[in-house]
Amino acid sequence: MESFDFLFDPQSVAVVGSLRGIDSPAVRYLRQYKNAGFKGKLYAVSRKSTEHIEGVCPCHQSLKDIPGPVDYVIACVPATVLMDLADECIDKQVKAVHIFTGRLRETSDPQLERLEQDIVRRLRACGIRVVGPNCMGIYRPESGMTFRFEFPRETGPVAFLSQSAGNAGHLAGLGIGRGLRFSKIISYGNGTDLNETDFLEYLTDDAETKIISLYIEGVRDGRRFLKALARAAAKKPVVVMKGGRSEAGARAATSHTASLAGSQLSWDVALRQVGAIQVESIEEMADLLLALMFLPPAQGKRAAVLCGGGGDTVSSADQCEAHGLVVPALSQDLREEFQRQLPEVGSLVNNPVDYSALGDQAAFDLTSKLLARHRDFDVVVCDTQVVWRLGYHNGLDRIAAMVDTFIKVEKSSLKPVVVAIHLPDFIESAAWSALIDQQARCWRAGLAVYPSLERAIKALAGFIYYHDVVRGG
Amino acid sequence: MMNSMTIRMLPEHEVHELLRAGEINIVETPLAKSKEDAVIVAERLGFPVVLKVASPDITHKSDAGGVELNISGPEQVRESYDRIISSARKHDSKAIIDGVSIQKMVPKGIELIVGMSTDRTFGPMIMFGIGGVFVEVLKDVAFRIAPLSEKDAHEMIREIKGFALLTGFRGEKPVDVAYLENLLMKVSRLVEENPEIQELDLNPVIAYPESAVVVDARIVLKNSS
């Protein structure tokens, strides 16, 4: 695999485009790079001599005016001047060009399609690699490259590869507050030079990427892509969301096989065959990535469920079973243990644990610890029962106490533990932000935390599927 | 049927040649171009036999009244020949009819289907499942993208709901699953080596405790455009 250091760790970056207005793409890139602590040299290039960008970096009228080399160019210029810029890039001997500019091939206008081809071919002929066109490019916190202000400066183990950057923003938005951190996010747009398979092959061997996630609508070369995906999945967990599924398929068929295959989605077959984990939404992806990031390997699917009142215990057990988990009843030795340790309420302990039957935090604490450690259980599902607890005096403190218990459980059991901190739709903003703080406490302590019990269970089930079927099978 | 204009079926004898070259066991199916020819062929194969219309234009032979089973003697061969030709003519007056193809009846076994269709993203995709005339009603099939690994072949056979039928249902002897896995691998190799194949149906494949045999096969070629 060739090194892509010039893409992900450039020593100098020039952003080319109009600097007029706070929302101009070039201005956004420059300010974001500055904000993300880009370590290399940063330049603005704008043809209008009067334009400059205050307090960010020096501005030049053309690439050739920049003293010293430029590794990486971000092109935010209109399509009509892209070819001139390509020539400047060739003269300047840059290594890679990220073409932000859109409205090229994706318009289906043959003239623009040809222009895109010509520009990319010209750059390639001179040994310059191209990201895009029509994309947001690269986020790599380690080198301070980014395309969104809200993306964290902290690095992490997850790579996300996506045609569209909208999904990247969506994924990050759903996960950042719960500890989702990225090694790289790559939005590759039209993928005219570097495409999904090139990046997938790179990420498979990339030491800072431990988990790979992809959003895919279509691929250039399905056979090559699938081979690359199989190699990736053999090495690291790979989570895939396939967009545009509904249009797949139907064509008049002569054979029974083709007729049956028409109703079957080849993507489902292919992804399962190579051991990639398929998800249906970006939300499901964020939840599963968190499980893969935070949880130790699961040995099985028997869940201890640490829960709330009577109704909740039933519905949480139902949800576990609906997602393929098992919720075993207590064995005789555990029953006796509880009766010994908690003479008054020990006989009421069951799985799921009914907190309300135990009455106080100390009893719940002890019960949780004993259950989670026991050999009958492989995983632990925890619910903070937010709505119920908020109705009590000092409700938020009680929720914090539950989190204390779950953090202790996680530390002592060495098993996968998921925690639900439900964020209700109707809540005071102070309580909301206190709950967000509790989420942060969880992930800072190394727990996978979810905004609903259902999502926690679903993510855990996906995680177990990965260890059971993909790794074990 | 606008479609039939653009479909290229591989002629039956070439289907047989191709499958044999791929070491896939298919029931011998000689062509008889006349009634008397049919009698001679049937006697050589041994009764009872099956007669099927041989026409490049008729893809679903049963629908055209073009298949007759359990023909037990020379006179029945003659009668059956006439019936098949005339109902095929009735079904499609413009169809080219080469005669009938004849097979010795095979013993009862489990009817399966093995197939391939070309997916526009991933190329050849192999199918395995419960076969026979109800295949599209039961839809009990499993798919894998080719080329298959041995693990794929192993898994797809076990993935169908009717797998219990293969392992000795109601005191029957289990069928030769290893043979079926091997058959899937051969089909996978065959379609990889012959990229001009667009679709393939081996239906039914009759599975026995110690082997399996393809009774009918159909191959659609890619349009050369």
Can you characterise this structure?
The complex is a heterodimer of chains A (473) and B (225). Chain A contains 18 helices and 16 strands. Chain A is an alpha/beta fold and 473 residues long. In chain A, helix 6 packs parallel to helix 7, helix 7 runs parallel beside helix 9 and helix 14 packs parallel to helix 16. The two termini of chain A are 28 Å apart. Chain B has two domains: 77 residues, 2-Layer Sandwich (Dna Ligase, domain 1); 112 residues, ATP-grasp fold, B domain (D-amino Acid Aminotransferase, Chain A, domain 1, 2-Layer Sandwich). Chain B has seven helices and eleven strands. In chain B, helix 2 packs across helix 3 and helix 5 packs across helix 7.
**CATH architectural group of the largest domain in chain B:** 2-Layer Sandwich
Mean pLDDT level of chain B: 92
Helix- and strand-based class of chain A?
alpha/beta
What is the CATH topology assignment of the largest domain in chain B?
D-amino Acid Aminotransferase, Chain A, domain 1
Low-pLDDT sequence parts of chain B: 1-5
According to CATH, what is the topology of the largest domain in chain A?
A: Rossmann fold
Shape of chain A: elongated
Largest interface (C-beta under 8 Å): A-B, 23 and 31 residues
Order of helices and strands of chain B: EHEHEEHEEEHEHHHEEE
> Which overall shape of chain B is indicated by the principal axes computed on the Cα atoms?
globular
Helix content of chain B: 25-40%
The strand count of chain B comes to 11
Rg of chain B, Å, rounded: 18 Å
Rg of Cα set of chain A = 26 Å
Tell me the domain tally of chain B: 2
**Which spans of chain A of ≥5 residues are poorly predicted at pLDDT below 50?**
248-252
Domain module tally of chain A = 3
What is this structure, in a nutshell?
The complex is a heterodimer of chains A (473) and B (225). By secondary structure, chain A is of the alpha/beta class. Chain A contains 18 helices and 16 strands.
